[in-house]
Amino acid sequence: MSQALNLIRGMVRAGDLELSYHGLKSLTERYIDLEETISGLDSAILVEERWETDRIKRVVVLQRETDGSPVHVVWETPEVLGRPAVLVTAYRPDPAEWTEDFKRRR
Fold first, then answer.
1. CA angle at residue 4 from 72 to 76, to 5 degrees?
2. What is the predicted pLDDT for the residue at 17?
3. Which domain holds residue 43?
4. Per residue in 14-63, pLDDT tens?
5. Cα–Cα distance between 20 and 64 in angstroms, integer?
């Protein structure tokens, strides 16, 4: 299990999260529900995990909307797994770019 994802889940449960400007814009423009995104984090599946810089860890998770549609949500923890958890962006993955389970890039 991903240490970064577990830390992000804990922070989000505690309300220790921020929504980046880009995150807010992507949710709004793509009609992705913020509350559903936050509540779906507990059942999210890790897709990718990487160091964005030497100080920022980023994870991409697969979540499902109420209707079952896949959504990828990008979270990060600044300051070497510090606080808060930041919702960076969310998008509906393109089936042409992802495997059938939306867990790996083609």
1. 55
2. 94
3. 3-91
4. 999 999 999 999 999 999 999 999 999 999 999 999 887 777 889 999 99
5. 21
In a domain, 96, yes or no: no
**Per the structure, how many domains does the chain have?**
1
Q: What pLDDT is recorded for position 55?
A: 77
Does residue 16 lie within any of the structural domains? Answer: yes
Residue type at 2?
Answer: S
Q: Is residue 101 part of a domain?
A: no
What pLDDT does residue 73 have?
97
Long-range (24+ apart) CB contacts under 8 A made by 6-10 are 7/77, 7/81, 7/85, 8/41, 8/59, 8/75, 8/77, 8/85, 9/41, 9/42
Q: What are phi and psi of 40, to 5 degrees?
A: -80, -5
